[in-house]
Every structure is written in C-alpha cells, then in structure tokens.
Inverse folding.
C-alpha cells in the first residue's frame, strides 16, 4: 500500500522573512523513481518556476509561509501540494503517470474504450464532478441540465421524455438505451445510486451508437460505475446528505372557484339537470350541494338552512384542504460509502449506500445499494473481473394527493372539505346516493360512509423491488495486441407489490356491502366475506447476457489499428402473477372463498356483476442475438477512419421468423489538425475535425410477421372455455424503421484550455418511421402500426467550457450547452384528416402533424374570430367567413387550410449554462436551463367537463357574461347547453396557444472545501455543500404565469423546490 | 496471428448462427400464439361477447325514447345530439362509433374464416358456421342503419354496405348495391345453417336456430314473407321455447335473466348516454298500451319520482341494452308473415301463443282479428311492445313506411321542432365523414 500524499507535520511559524526557500524532490508515485525535467512553481508565481534536476530535486523561493506548489510534466498529471513553512524535511511531490490515468481520457461505448484522440463519433461525457453538483436521488434527473444534446420534454403527452438529439421515432419506444457498464439495463434507473456513477457517456451519432444496433436510434446513454485504480492502495470516500423540500404549490392548479362551481350546480339543479340522477333506481352519488338542494326541495330541511350550509361551502377551497391535511415537506437522507483498493494484481471497489425518503404525501421510500467490483490480474495473460450489485427498494404509499379523491369517476368538487374546524374527519358522499346508503345501514352491513381524510390509512400499497446483478469476465491475451474476452451477466429482479384495502377501508366496505344479498328476514347474506381485500402482483425478471469478443490493438510505424468483433445473446425472461384475496385478515393471512361464476345483483344499483377475480399468470421470454464489429485505423495520429457493423436477430418479430436479421453500419473519419506538422498556432492546444455517417435502428416489440392472437386470462362466462383476441395484425408491407445520421464535428481547445469544447452539426434522416396510422376502419382496424412517415432533422450541438476569470484565489468558469434541433416531415403516407386531427386538445397528446415541411409535432389551432358580442359564443372561420358552426369547423375536410400554424411543440433550441465561481475553498455553482422556439396549448374551461364530469377551470371566472365582455375576455359564455364541438373548437383555438420559451434556474450549489492538510484530520479532502434545486422559471414568454414544462393540464403540479445539505469526504 | 483471429471469429459466427435458429424460435409471450388451431379460432369467437356491441344509432334515432330538455342539453357528444334530431351529417362520434364497432368485429370473423382456410384446419364446419352467422348478423344490423329500407325494385341501384369478406386491410372499401348486401347476408346464413348443429354448448355460440332466426328476420326486412315464415317456422320447430313471465320476480332490479331460454344470441347495444336507464324515457303512450295484467308492464318498466317511465332493461339481466335475437321475435315474425300471407287464424294463434306467457296466469283473453289486415295491425302493435330496445324499431319504421305507413317522427326540443318525414333520405344515416374522406366511397344521398 502506498500513499501518494505524504503527510506533513506542520508547525505554525511566525517567520517574517520576505522569501522562503523550499527544498524538494519529485518522484513517480508508482516506481518512486526521481523525475527530472518537471516544472515546479508556486501558485500565481508561475513566472519564477524551476525545473527538477536528474535526481528530481528542486529549490524554489516562495513569498509566503503558506503556498500551493504545482508540479507539471509532459507524461504526468499535474500535482499540487499545499505547504506551510518552515518544513522540517525536504518536500516530496509524487506524480501520477498519465499512462495509468488513460482511462480517464477514454470514451466508452459499452463494448470498448476508445482514447478520445482516436474517436470519430459524437460522444458527450458527464463526469462525476459535474454530476455531483446537483443533489437528486435519481441520476437521470441530473443529466437534463448538464449533458449536451440531451433534453427532457413534457410537451407531447405530459410525461417526461428523455431524448438524445430530439425524437427519432414517431411511435416506437422513445427512450434512449441505457447501458450500465457493459450491458443494457432494463431496470428502474431510480434504483441506481448516483454515488456509484463515475461518468455518463452519451452516444449521439451513428459512429458512436450504431454498435448497439436495433435499439440505438434514440441514442445510447452509457453509465460507467466507479472502479478501483491499480496501485492506489486503500482509499475511500463517503457522502451524507439531507434534502428537504417545500410543500407543493397547490394554488398553481387552475381550480374553478368554489362559489362559481356552486352557482353552476344551483342553476343546473333548478333546470332539473340532476332529476334523473336523484330519481334513478341505481342511486348515483349526488354532490354535497345538490344533496342539500334536494333535501330542501323535499322539505327535509329549510331552504335557509340549506343555503347557509351551501354558503359555508362557498368559502372552502379544496386546494387549501389538501395542502393543510395531506401534503407535507419531503425529506430525504442519503448515506454512501465507497471503498477502493488498488494493488498491482488486484483492485476493487465496494459501495454501500442507503437512502430514506419521506415524500410530500408521507409516502416512504427506502433504498439500499451494495456493490462490489473486483479486477484481478490472475496471470500475465489473464485478467478476471467479477462484480456484484444488489439493490433493494421498499416503498409504502402515503396520503391522498389532490385529484385522487373523487366521488364517482372523475367527479371532484372544488369545495371538498376534508376536516371540520377541529380537524375531525368529514364524510364525503362517494359512489352512491348518500341518503339511500343511510337507509340501508344497520342490519349487519358495514358502515358505508367515506372519510377522505383518513381513508388512505386503510389503503396501503407496498412494493418491494430487489435486484441482483452478477457479472464476470475473463480476458486472455493471446499475443501482444490481441486478446479475447468473454463476459457474462446475470440480472435478476423481483418486483413485489401488495395493496391492502383493510376491513376499515372504504373500498373493502363498499365492495362487501354492495355484493351482500338481502335475506327474506331483512338481514344480509355476505357473498364477499367481510374483511380486507388484498391485491398482489409479482414479477420476476431474469436477464442473461453472454458476450464473446476479440480485441485487437496494433501499432507499427505510423499505423494503428483497433478492432473488435464479437457476438452476444441476451435473454429476458419474465414471469408474473397477480392474485386477489377477499376477506383477508392480515394478522393470520387467512382469506375467504368466493364464487366467481355467479352473477350477483348489486345491493345499490341492482345491476348484476361477477366478483372480480384478479388472478393472472403470464410469462414472457424475449431473446436477442447479435453480431458486431468495430474497427478503426489511425495514421500517424493524424488521420482516423472507423467503421462499425452490427446485425440483430430476435424472437420478437414473429413467432416463426428468425430470418429477420437486420444490419446496421456506420463509417467515420477524423483529422487531428493540431497534430499536423505544418500546423503551429501556439494558442491552439488541440483541434480536431471529424465526420460520420451511419444507421441506427429501432425495434418495436409489437412488430409481427403474422397475425397473432393473445389469450385472455379469464374464461368465457357463457362457455367456460378460453377466450382470445387478435393482438397484432400482420401487415405484409411493414418495413424496418431506420435512422440515418450524418455528423460533422469539431473539437477544440485554445489558450491552454481557457476555451475548450466541441461543435457539431448533424442531420438525421428517418425512413419508414413507424406510426399508428389511422386506417379506413371499415377494414376493422382503427389504427395500425405502419411505416407512416419519412422525416428529416437538422441540429447543432455546441458545448463550451470557458475559464472567464482566473485571478488569484478567484476563478469563474462557464459551461455552455447549446443545442438546436428542428425536425420536419418529408413525406407522410397516411390518409387525410379533418381539422380536428391536426389540432388536438389541452390535456391530450399532441397529434403528429403529417404535413410535409412542418415539424413532426406541430401546434395548429382553429382561427379565432373573438366572442359573439350578443351571446359570448366563440367564433371561428369556415371557408373564410366568421362562423359558429363548430361541427363543421372542427370537422372541416379542408383540414389544414382553415387552421393557423404556430410551430414546433418541442423546443427547437435548448441547453444549459452552468457558471462556477471559486474563491479559495468556496465554490458556487449556478445551473440554468433554457428551452426556446416552441409552442404549447394552455388549458381552459370545457363546459362539457364542467357539467358532466364536475371538472371546472379557473378561467370560468373570466367568462363572457354580458354584452361588452367580449372586449375584455376571450373565455366563452356558459349557456348551460353543452355543445361538445363548441368546447372542442374553443380549446383548440389559437387564443389558447402560447409560446413555450423559458429560462429556468435549475440549481444553485454552494460548497466549501477546506484544505485538509491544514486540519488535523486523516482526510484527503472534505467538502460541505448546500444546494437548492427546482427553483423555477425565471423568465417565460407566456403572460399567464405558466411553467410551460408543467402546463399539460390544469391540474399539473410544478415540482417542489428542494434544499439539500451534505458532506463529502475522501480518505 | 491473423489465423488465430480468423479462427476465433469464424467459431463465434458459426456458433451464433447455428444456435440462433433454435434460440430465436422461442415464443416471446406465453399468452401469444398464431391462430392456427380450431381452439384458437373458437376462442376468438367466444370473446366476441365481451365486445359484442351492436349499433345504437337506430335506438337513438327511433321513437321508442325521448329525453328531457335539460338532459338533452347536457348530452356530452354533439354528434349524438345531431343524430337524435336527424341531422343530415356529422352524426357519428369521433371514436368507437357504430361503423367502427360493426366492422371491427366483422374483421375478427373474416380472420377466423381466413385462418380456417389458410391453416387448413380440419373439422371446422361449426366454427365457420358461427363466424358466418355472426358476420351476417352484423351486416344485417348495419344495413338497417346506413341503408334505405329494402325495396326489390330499386335494390340493385340503392347503396348497400361495403362488403369486407377477408381480413386483407390493403383492399379498398367499396360500397356494394343493397341487393348485393342482402344476397351476401342470405348466402352466409344459408351456408351457416347447413354447417351448424341444432344446439351448441352455450347460447353465445350461434346454432342452426340462430342462423334460421336471422334468415327469418332478413327475409322479413326484404318483404319476402314466404321465406321469412318458412325459416321462422323451421327455427321454432327446433327450439321454440318461451319463458313464462309468471315465474319472474318483479321485485328484483333486473327480473329477466340474461341468456334465458328464449335467447338465440345475447348481443348488446353499444352504450350511449342517450340510452342509459335514467335518461332515456319511454313515451307514456307506449307504457299505457300495456294492460294491467300484462306482466311486462311491471317487468319492463319503472317510474321515477317525477312519474316518468324508465325502461328497466329486458333480456340482458342488467342495465345494459340488449338487442339479442330471441324466440319472441321469431314468433312475432312468423305471426306477421302469416297475416301478410292472409292466414289470419295462424297469425293470431302464433301471437296468442306468445302473449299468454306474458300475462298474469288466468287473465289472458286470446286476441282475435276480423281479417288479415286487422291481424297485421295488432301484430305490429304487439311487436313494438314486446321488442322495445331490441334494435328493431328503426328498421320497422323504415320498412312500414316503405309500404306506405306514413310514420312521421317528430321531436320538440328547446322550442324547436324536428321532423323526419316518412321515407326521408335521412333514414339512411350518414356514414362517418372520416370514412368517406379516407375511402372516397359515396355518402348516402341527402
């Protein structure tokens, strides 16, 4: 075991000399051989540097008693050493050879490591330093803000979609392929601890990614875990942190005012709208206000009394109720320990990590990671790698969030009261007419009331995810430069899910009551046994990978060849089972028997139903086999050409077709301009041009080469035999989806690294893109996976690191990521659409535009002609004239001609700016992200939703009410007559389209890293930090105070601001 | 060195290629398979009833229901409001409309018929017969919605349905003539009747009686009363059972059991807010036409707090609207055909045989008719009463009007009166506009 830092004994000195002399020696940290020709200087005193002699010795004058000594040499990493004078023995500086550090400069594809110098493709690397500036439990949440060319969009369907260089597919899986070390990772990225990650490499073009073949079209993200370094002895680091958050801002929800909502209910009641519900024999639920109005009408209470109670409800805002009783601060604690061991023969790393989170609703999430990675050079020719990774996540559900408590279907009232003034739970009518429920109570039935405040306590979902990855590899050096390796990985995952509605839960009580049958004596017979209802779901996934690969690395004279060729197979087996238990008793895990084959009339509605069986079993087995090769040739470190080819086969494409081998290939070239002899610009440290072209693919598991059927898990109630449905229809004309990528890049470093980075221009050409094309459904198929489009995209990725100021102890560095991506449909093979087919709605996925020359996801809108001054009806245009024929406008066969085109629904310019300010041991990081050049549709009031689904919108307050209002508002009037086409028109009109451009302050991190050599603690380094994340939008183009990333529907919540404090240390 | 390299790579390549043939043959999902056995195809047919939704456009358009104004105003789908008021166009909801419902199931049957041929499945007569019956039943139902009533003098030029008879989705949809449509229905049903057994293991599988019953209905709609009578009698001869309504308990919410002995095929109407148990009100005149001792008065209906008449649901055993083919309809068809063929005695005897099971025991006085026309009138009245919500009224109005009944449908909503005169072109409901746009098929003339 060797230390590369010699501990110095420090004495305080009151020396007052103007100059202090340091005697020292520079040694290689491995061989302990003296190093000659090393430049040694004190920081900020570079002009008075000295050079070591043949014994590695030097003498240096420094002006102060404390100084930072810097040693640099060609083949060594720069070494820095803090000293305090006087020294009682000569200073020893150990330097680390760059050869041993080569891995740092290498890029990995998951199959091989390529020195950055010889790379022809597009790679974007995020190292652990940059990753550690943000504090999140999920590693993927961090790369959005810092990685080049990567963005998370939420515009299409409201769900976050991580994409590399824009979307490459229209349908198909959109997620990039994630590689954990060597193999694809199919688990939940949330279980991978950020503390084990050494670096993340994003493979952006064909030369980089096509080696991954049929899954690479969306880009590939390679996560490399931390490894032990040979010859470093035992070292380690640990990290503890605590994160707390604000409560979510529920007032961001555009909820209709309670008083407005009540007015609507009163008006509808007087119109008789609720009469069919009130008198319905199936006893549907009435909202509290309607119930009060009905009671007053029936004379069960006085009108004054009813109005008093209703007026009290006008003051209630359910957002406040949820905020007060359901939401809390999120709290997260993380502890991580890494231990590294590095000897000459063996090196290893071991990680232990634990985190414990209580979410905003009190939900619990506990996660433990353990990892061991061992590299053993067993023989001169044989290297063996063994690894084990274990992770376990336990989750438990919490309270009920906003929007999860509804009366029936999605009915929710804005005046929902969870608790009375004293905090006692209040009853909420649920599922059925409350009065009818009450009339049935007694006679042995369970309490049928629903208490939203406490029901979650009786409805607990728990999940346990256990993951085990075991891998091993053996590498054998056949001759110099040629080795063969075999790698194997076994990944097993168990996902256990249990949801128990205990006997006191509303769900169980309601279920049992509803199935009970009335006996002739008035008592009840229970068909579903009293007790809890337990649902279990269990999946076991096992993934086996085996890979054989030959690596050749040869150099003679000016030539260098690197070649890999290999074959691999991958099998994913899944077995799943679900069960449901009635009358479940959690103390002795007993459950009751039920009859699934008899129809029982519901006590409440009289409708007959079967008891839900909830039992199923399924297994899946996906297999892939691949052959691949990658080769590169370098001439004189100046010219590089490379190529890769891969074929994939799988059992997915059809049950009997394994001849669907699909080839992918790429070629690339690069020119290291700065290595040219004629090139001697001293300010240029490094300049490289590169270009590549190739194909990436996309597998869609639903592609089949025959019409397949899928069996139901239940039997026919009539025949008692199996039932099946058609799963996929065979389309003989279906072709593979491919994406051709051209990439031209420039890597640069100027002024001794003051400015460095890369600029890349790329073009994607997607052919035969899959899409769910609407078909003439006379064929029986409404939509089908077809090759619907050809698209092209052009983009620019610029990454730049600049050292803006470096003055004494202060420095200011900036990292700029700038990406542009514009895609457009070149050709669309599908059929015509109506105007409504281009528009889509707020709260619904943006439809694919299908218009050549326009972005794949475009925002179109109906043209807006203001509100009718007489009625407040919205007005549009039909055939160029102002019209209120909403059915014709939305169903216009002319489609496009009558619509207004805005632009892309996805940001066309995006990136981040990270500024780092350092003053001595203090560092401040400020991360900003921006998304520009796109449009989104904001939500507004739909009168159909308001009246039929009891779901309003705050815009209701601004609706047109009287002539003249049309001058100040664009929100249509409520005329209590639903015209779904009128809603469709208004919600899809241009008045609701907003520019999405915004600038977001993602995080601010302040850290303090004192010189440990000045403290009497056995630590190499220590860092204290505080960080604030998700601070929010600081500039937006829209005037409605909307965060465009979180404006998908009127109930979308913004992420909470989190505050983290932590400590990192190395020893 | 090159030899070693070459050797190893060849070895890997050869191993992988050979191994892959078996390796990639494994089934990717345990529930997934090719529909190559008789059981697979029977399983496809047996699932039909989970989605076996027949059209509701006829019920929404016909005069068996009305809506209160406030309920009408709050109806969530504009297309259905237009349908209810007989607008000439844009009467189909954007997704899951009747057209899609009908043809998505026709496609399943086409697949089954194709699979039997393609995989050369032996002993498939029963399965083929079921698929043909189900397909013909859907085409017959669809023809009542999107085509004019059958008129032998114009059927060769009247628009029929696009007849899709195999699963190839690349073939364009082309409208056949109404004659071709009916010819296809009859051909399929006749072939099915020759293939199917008299009885199946469950009512969900069409039997010979189902095929004959549909044939009887088809010929009735075509005005071919002789064939309608013959097929109806043949069906009743095999399975002419009727329920005695005295055995049913009106105290339960849905007293008539699902898949009872009268049912020949338990098909449902697609759901719509227009025909829910609470919104669709029954005109008082219909309710009033039931005598006090007629058990159907209490079994079929209930009144709400406002005294309006609601339909309980009949042969579904639940609130869902069932438009099943059942023996009561065959009796009424047979009776009607006898009357139209001037056999008054047989007509009234058949009608009375049905009605006696509907009345309180001992109270029924057999109906009599002075002549065939009187018999026909009484049978028409009883047909409407018995077959409420069975998806037949719309077709009946159309064919009665064809022979000059002059039934004018009117609705008065929000102060506006809507009228559908007899034999109006709008009685062939507009085909969904997107279908017209995609296929270029001619729309029904307006």
């Amino acid at each position: 075991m060797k230390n590369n830092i010699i501990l110095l004994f420090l004495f305080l000195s009151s020396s007052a000399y103007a100059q202090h002399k340091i005697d020292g020696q520079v040694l290689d940290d491995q061989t302990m051989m003296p190093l000659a020709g090393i430049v040694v200087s004190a920081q900020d005193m570079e002009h008075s540097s000295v050079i070591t002699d043949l014994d590695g010795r030097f003498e240096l004058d420094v002006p102060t008693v404390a100084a930072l000594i810097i040693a640099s040499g060609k083949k060594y990493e720069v070494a820095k050493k803090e000293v305090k004078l006087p020294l009682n023995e000569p200073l020893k500086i150990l330097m680390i050879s760059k050869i041993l550090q080569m891995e740092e400069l290498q890029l990995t594809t998951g199959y091989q490591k390529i020195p950055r110098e010889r790379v022809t493709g597009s790679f974007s690397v995020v190292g652990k330093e940059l990753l550690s500036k943000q504090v999140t439990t999920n590693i993927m949440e961090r790369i959005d803000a810092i990685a080049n060319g990567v963005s998370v969009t939420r515009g299409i369907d409201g769900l976050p979609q991580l994409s590399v260089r824009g979307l490459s597919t229209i349908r198909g899986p959109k997620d990039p392929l994630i590689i954990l070390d060597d193999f694809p990772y199919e688990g939940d990225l949330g279980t991978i601890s950020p503390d084990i990650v050494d670096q993340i490499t994003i493979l952006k073009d064909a030369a980089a990614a096509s080696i991954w073949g049929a899954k690479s079209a969306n880009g590939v993200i390679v996560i490399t875990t931390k490894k032990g370094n040979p010859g470093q002895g035992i070292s380690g680091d640990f990290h503890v942190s605590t994160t707390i958050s604000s409560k979510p801002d529920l007032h961001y929800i555009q909820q209709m005012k309670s008083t407005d909502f009540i007015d609507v209910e009163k008006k509808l009641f007087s119109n008789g709208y609720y009469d069919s519900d009130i008198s319905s024999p199936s006893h549907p639920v009435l909202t509290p206000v309607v119930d009060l109005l009905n009671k007053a009408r029936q004379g069960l209470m006085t009108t004054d009394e009813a109005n008093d109670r209703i007026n009290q409800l006008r003051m209630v805002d359910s957002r406040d109720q949820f905020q007060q009783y359901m939401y809390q601060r999120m709290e997260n604690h993380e502890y991580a320990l890494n231990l590294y061991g590095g000897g000459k023969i063996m090196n290893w790393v071991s990680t232990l990590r634990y985190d414990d989170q209580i979410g905003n609703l009190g939900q619990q999430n506990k996660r433990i990671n353990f990892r061991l990675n061992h590299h053993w050079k067993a023989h001169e020719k044989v290297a063996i790698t063994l690894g084990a990774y274990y992770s376990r996540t336990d989750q438990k559900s919490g309270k009920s969030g906003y929007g999860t408590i509804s009366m029936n279907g999605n009915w929710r009232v804005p005046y929902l009261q969870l608790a009375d003034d004293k905090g006692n739970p209040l009853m909420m009518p649920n599922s059925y007419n409350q009065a009818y429920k009450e009339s049935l109570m007694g006679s042995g039935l369970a309490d049928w009331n629903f208490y939203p405040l406490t029901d979650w306590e009786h409805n607990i979902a728990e999940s346990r995810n256990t993951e085990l990855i075991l891998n091993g590899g053996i590498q054998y050096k056949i001759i110099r430069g040629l080795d063969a390796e075999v790698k194997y990985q076994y990944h097993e995952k168990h996902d256990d899910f249990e949801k128990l509605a205990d006997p006191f839960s509303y769900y169980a009580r309601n279920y049992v009551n509803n199935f009970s049958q009335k006996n002739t004596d008035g008592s009840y017979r229970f068909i579903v046994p009293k007790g809890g209802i337990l649902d279990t779901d269990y999946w076991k996934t096992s993934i086996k990978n085996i890979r054989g690969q030959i690596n050749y690395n040869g150099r003679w004279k000016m030539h260098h060849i690197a070649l890999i060729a290999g074959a691999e197979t991958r099998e994913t087996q899944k077995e799943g089972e679900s069960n449901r238990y009635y009358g479940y008793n959690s103390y002795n895990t007993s459950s009751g028997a039920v009859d699934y084959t008899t129809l029982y009339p519901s006590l409440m509605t009289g409708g007959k139903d079967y008891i839900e069986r909830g039992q199923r079993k399924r297994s899946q087995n996906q297999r892939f086999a691949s052959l691949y090769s990658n080769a590169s040739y370098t001439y004189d470190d100046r010219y590089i050409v490379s190529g890769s080819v891969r074929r994939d086969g799988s059992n997915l494409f059809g049950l009997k077709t394994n001849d669907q081998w699909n080839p992918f290939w790429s070629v690339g070239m690069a020119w290291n301009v700065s290595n040219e002899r004629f090139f001697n610009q001293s300010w240029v440290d490094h300049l490289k041009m590169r270009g590549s072209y190739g194909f990436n693919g996309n597998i869609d598991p639903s592609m089949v080469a025959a019409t397949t059927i899928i069996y139901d898990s239940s039997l026919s109630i009539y025949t008692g035999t199996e039932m099946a449905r058609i799963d996929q229809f065979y389309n003989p004309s279906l072709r593979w989806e491919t994406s051709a990528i051209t990439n031209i890049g420039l890597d640069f470093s100027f002024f001794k690294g003051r400015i460095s980075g890369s600029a890349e221009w790329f073009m994607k050409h997607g052919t035969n893109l899959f899409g769910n094309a609407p078909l003439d459904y006379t064929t029986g198929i409404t939509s089908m996976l077809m090759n619907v489009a050809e698209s092209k995209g052009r983009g620019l990725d610029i990454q730049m690191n600049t050292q803006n100021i470096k003055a004494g102890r202060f420095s200011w560095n900036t990292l700029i990521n700038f990406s542009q991506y514009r895609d457009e449909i070149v050709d669309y093979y599908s059929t015509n659409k109506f105007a409504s087919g281009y528009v889509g709605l707020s709260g619904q996925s943006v439809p694919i535009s299908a218009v050549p020359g326009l972005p794949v996801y475009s925002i179109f809108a109906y043209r807006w002609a203001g509100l009718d001054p007489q009625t407040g009806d919205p007005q549009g245009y039909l055939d160029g004239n102002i019209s209120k024929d909403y059915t014709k406008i939305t169903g216009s066969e002319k489609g496009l001609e009558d619509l207004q085109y805005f632009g892309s629904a996805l940001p066309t310019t995006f990136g981040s700016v990270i500024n780092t300010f350092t003053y001595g041991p203090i560092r401040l990081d400020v991360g900003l992200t921006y998304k520009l050049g796109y449009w989104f549709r904001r939500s507004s009031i739909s009168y159909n939703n308001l009246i039929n689904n009891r779901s309003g919108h705050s815009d209701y307050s601004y609706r047109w009410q009287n002539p003249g209002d049309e001058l100040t508002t664009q929100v249509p009037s409520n005329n209590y007559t639903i015209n779904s086409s009128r809603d469709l028109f208004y919600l899809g009109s241009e008045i609701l389209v907003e520019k999405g451009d915004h600038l977001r302050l993602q995080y601010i991190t302040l850290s303090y890293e004192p010189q440990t050599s000045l403290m009497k603690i056995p630590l190499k380094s220590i860092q204290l930090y505080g960080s604030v994340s998700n601070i929010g939008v600081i500039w937006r183009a829209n005037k409605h105070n909307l965060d465009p990333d979180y404006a998908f529907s009127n109930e979308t919540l913004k992420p909470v601001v989190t505050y983290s404090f932590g400590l990192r240390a190395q020893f | 060195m090159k030899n070693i390299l070459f050797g190893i790579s060849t070895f890997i390549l050869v191993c992988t290629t050979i191994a892959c043939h078996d390796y990639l043959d494994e089934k990717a999902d345990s529930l997934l398979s090719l529909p190559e056995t008789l059981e697979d195809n029977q399983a496809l047919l047996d699932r039909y009833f989970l989605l076996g939704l027949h059209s509701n456009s006829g019920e929404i358009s016909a005069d068996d229901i009305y809506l209160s104004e406030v309920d009408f105003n709050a109806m969530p789908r504009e297309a259905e409001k237009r349908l209810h008021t007989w607008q000439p166009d844009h009467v189909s909801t954007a997704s899951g409309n009747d057209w899609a419902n009908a043809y998505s199931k026709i496609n399943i049957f086409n697949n089954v018929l194709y699979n039997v041929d393609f995989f050369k499945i032996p002993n498939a007569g029963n399965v083929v017969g079921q698929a043909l019956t189900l397909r013909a039943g859907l085409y017959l139902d669809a023809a009542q919605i999107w085509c004019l009533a059958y008129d032998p003098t114009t059927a060769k030029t009247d628009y029929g349905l696009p007849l899709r008879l195999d699963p190839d989705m690349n073939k364009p949809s082309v409208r056949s003539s109404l004659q071709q449509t009916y010819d296809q229905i009859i051909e399929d049903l006749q072939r099915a009747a020759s293939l199917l057994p008299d009885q199946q293991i469950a009512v969900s599988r069409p039997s010979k009686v189902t095929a004959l019953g549909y044939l009887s209905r088809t010929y009735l709609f075509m005005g071919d009363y002789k064939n309608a009578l013959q097929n109806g009698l043949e069906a009743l001869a095999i399975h002419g059972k009727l329920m005695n309504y005295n055995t049913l308990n009106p105290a339960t919410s849905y007293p008539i059991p699902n898949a009872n002995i009268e049912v020949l095929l338990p098909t449902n109407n697609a759901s719509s807010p227009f025909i829910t148990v609470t919104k669709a009100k029954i005109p008082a005149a219909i309710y009033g036409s039931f005598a006090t001792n007629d058990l159907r008065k209490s079994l079929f209906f209930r009144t709400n707090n406002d005294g309006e008449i609601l339909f309980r649901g009949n042969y579904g055993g639940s609130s869902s609207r069932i438009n099943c083919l059942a023996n009561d309809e065959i009796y009424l068809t047979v009776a009607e055909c006898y009357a139209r063929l001037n056999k008054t005695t047989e007509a009234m005897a058949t009608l009375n045989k049905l009605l006696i099971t509907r009345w309180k025991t001992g109270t029924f006085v057999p109906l009599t008719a002075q002549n065939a026309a009187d018999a026909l009138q009484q049978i028409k009245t009883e047909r409407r009463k018995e077959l409420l919500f069975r998806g037949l009224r719309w077709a009946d109005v159309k064919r009665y009007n064809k022979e000059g009944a002059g039934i004018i449908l009117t609705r008065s909503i929000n102060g506006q009166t809507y009228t559908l005169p007899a034999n109006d072109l709008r009685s062939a409901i507009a085909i969904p506009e997107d279908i017209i746009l995609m296929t270029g098929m001619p729309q029904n003339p307006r």
